[in-house]
User: Which sequence fits this backbone?
């Protein structure tokens, strides 16, 4: 948990999460949805890291 609140705390939390993913080697699984109206970030849980969409609603 960040020691500060507000924008600085949110940025610290985001930076800590990114550092954790990089340390675990999972950074390549962070992706952006390919749906032109969505562009949400998601964690690709497929075996071969081939996920393109954040959910089934965006993929259909």
Assistant:
């Amino acid at each position: 948990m960040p020691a500060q609140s507000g924008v600085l705390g949110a940025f610290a939390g985001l930076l800590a999460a990114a550092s954790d993913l990089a340390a675990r080697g999972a950074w390549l699984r962070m992706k952006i949805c390919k749906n032109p109206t969505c562009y949400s970030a998601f964690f690709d849980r497929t075996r071969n890291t081939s996920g393109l969409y954040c959910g089934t609603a965006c993929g259909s």
User: Anything to note?
Assistant: The mean pLDDT is 89.
